[in-house]
Design brief:
Strand content: under 5%
Largest sheet: 2 strands, antiparallel
Structural class: mainly alpha
Oligomer: single chain
Radius of gyration: 28 Å
Number of helices: 21
Distance between the termini: 71 Å
Number of strands: 2
Helix content: 55-70%
Strand order of the largest sheet: 1-2
Length: 535
């Protein structure tokens, strides 16, 4: 029996030692994988991830559009136009070179998927989960715990995974207190990991619930309002396809609509516009404040400690849209102030203009509010921007140039020493500085593109200056860079030398550009989607 006991003890030691070696090897191997991506900074890693993600998504989208069944009445679309549309949907830019009603239902479904997968909130979750910032920290934490504990601990294999490694032979009171302190820190780390997992669930449910609710409201409206229902019936667009497509496009801040005229054909349907406005805001500019509000409500209703941890440790979790309370509040105020400013300016300049002709006071109010809310990132339009005054177009360009999370304040975490009866403790506070979380994107990237496009379209600039002018090209480039999609379009009536074969079209101004100009704008859309990494 003594021989078997000795053999069993040796086998146990060998097993524990093997587990220790395997855990160490796993730690080093996973750390090595992280280092392959973490060249210098996390920013580079995130840039590479997002760059290849949008390239692959656009190529797959192009192939899906090309292989999908087209409408029987539709002429075959050029490969360049299909690729342009795939890039525009993947980068949620909504720049168009063909009319939307040329696409079949299967192609509209493909575009819907591209918009969903390319939306900023969805891609932010991908970066949060697959860019190994938090993962690298976990590796370091596991590595330190592995080497701080001997391999002959009996409970080592079971406890290393949970992060609770305790040496069973330590009995003195001093060491026990150290272990208890370690357990407290480890439980804090466990709370952080559980909070990250729960945050993922909250954001995913937020994405789908808002879009499902939005699609349901749109479907109910077009089902019960005869004027809206008649528009879709005359165009041969199914109400289900329209509702889902528009809800996803609006929430993703893309701006595509299955109709050729975008939302201009619904400019008198104020109820539909009011349904879409909250989706625009909740999908981008107000997402960060809304997410914090949702977490606060869930914390109050469920009493789960993880929600409180999220609110109090937002920066430590590493999710870019979970911001501290003060920052979220300031961001919400900035969004509302900009909307009020844009609304008042637009109404003062255009209330009695040709753009709003034929609308009553209520329709003008709702339509103007819808236009300015869509101005910064979504790009859905109810008015013809070609007849809008140049001063308003300049303001539109500036507003599109602002990043989604502009707050014009720089908020920094600082450790402040607080004295109390038990001694000194550190408490995190936030300080305000002069500029914002996100600042203006550099003009360095855009001026050359405006110049190159003017070079590729130089003949049209001479022959058709009312349609092809520097302001219209600049608006198109800024709109593509900001991934907005607003456009002045092209109008045969503005030609100095009328072309009898010119037909009115309902696609973007870029649709009249040469292939070289279209390819340059494709590059601009990609740069716009990656502009955050140039700061």
């Amino acid at each position: 029996m003594g021989i078997f006991a000795s053999l069993g003890e040796k086998m146990e030691k060998f097993y524990n030692h093997s587990c220790y070696k395997m855990s160490s090897f796993r730690t080093y191997f996973l750390g090595f994988l992280c280092s392959l991506f973490d060249f210098h900074e996390l920013q580079l890693n995130s840039f590479v991830f997002q760059f290849f993600y949008y390239i692959i998504l656009s190529v797959l989208g192009f192939l899906a559009l090309k292989l999908s069944v087209m409408k029987a009445t539709t002429i075959r679309l050029a490969d360049l136009d299909l690729f342009f549309t795939a890039v525009s949907a993947s980068t949620v830019s909504s720049m168009s070179t063909v009319e939307m009603e040329l696409f079949s239902n299967s192609q509209l479904i493909v575009i819907t998927v591209l918009m969903l997968l390319g939306g900023e909130i969805f891609t932010s979750m991908l970066r949060f989960n697959f860019v190994p910032s938090n993962f690298a920290n976990k590796i370091k934490s596991i590595d330190s715990r592995v080497h701080d504990n001997p391999p002959n601990s009996k409970n080592f294999p079971g406890k290393i995974e949970s992060g609770l490694v305790v040496h069973p032979q330590v009995k003195d009171e001093k060491t026990s207190s150290i272990i208890e302190d370690g357990d407290k820190s480890l439980s804090g780390e466990h709370l952080r990991n559980v909070s990250i997992k729960l945050l993922n669930h909250v954001v995913i449910r937020y994405i789908f619930l808002v879009q499902i609710l939005g699609a349901g409201l749109i479907f109910l409206y077009v089902s019960f309002v005869p004027s809206a229902k008649e528009v879709l019936k005359n165009k041969g667009i199914q109400m289900q396809i329209f509702s889902i497509f528009t809800a996803v496009s609006t929430f993703s801040n893309c701006g595509f609509v299955p109709t050729n005229e975008n939302m201009k054909v619904f400019k008198k349907n104020s109820g539909l516009l009011l349904f879409l406005i909250p989706q625009v805001l909740l999908g981008n500019t107000l997402f960060a404040p809304a997410l914090r509000g949702v977490i606060w409500v869930l914390g109050k209703t469920t009493k789960r400690v993880e929600y409180g941890y999220m609110l109090n440790n937002s920066r430590e979790l590493g999710y870019s849209y979970l911001l501290p309370g003060l920052h979220s509040f300031v961001m919400a105020i900035v969004v509302l102030v900009l909307i009020v400013f844009e609304f008042l300016f637009f109404c003062s300049m255009e209330w009695n203009s040709e753009a709003l002709y034929g609308l009553d006071g209520n329709e003008k109010f709702v339509g103007s509010l819808f236009q300015v809310v869509n101005l910064r990132h979504t790009g859905e339009s109810v008015f013809d921007l070609s007849v809008v005054t140049p001063a308003v177009l300049v303001v539109f360009i500036v507003m599109m140039y602002l990043p989604a999370r502009a707050s014009f304040l720089n908020l920094e975490d600082k450790d402040v020493v607080v004295k109390n009866g038990e001694g000194e403790t550190k408490k995190k506070t936030m300080s305000l500085k002069g500029r914002g979380h996100d600042t203006f994107s550099p003009l360095f990237f855009l001026v050359p593109f405006v110049i190159f496009i003017c070079m590729t379209e130089r003949d049209k600039l001479k022959e058709d200056p009312l349609n092809f002018n520097v302001l219209s090209i600049t608006l198109e480039v800024i709109s593509a860079y900001a991934n907005v999609g607003l456009t002045t379009g092209y109008h045969c009536s503005l030609q100095l030398r009328p072309d009898p074969f010119c037909k009115p079209v309902w696609y973007g101004f870029v649709g009249r550009w040469s292939p070289g100009g279209k390819l340059l704008l494709v590059v601009v859309m990609f740069l716009g989607k990656l502009r955050k990494f140039g700061k």
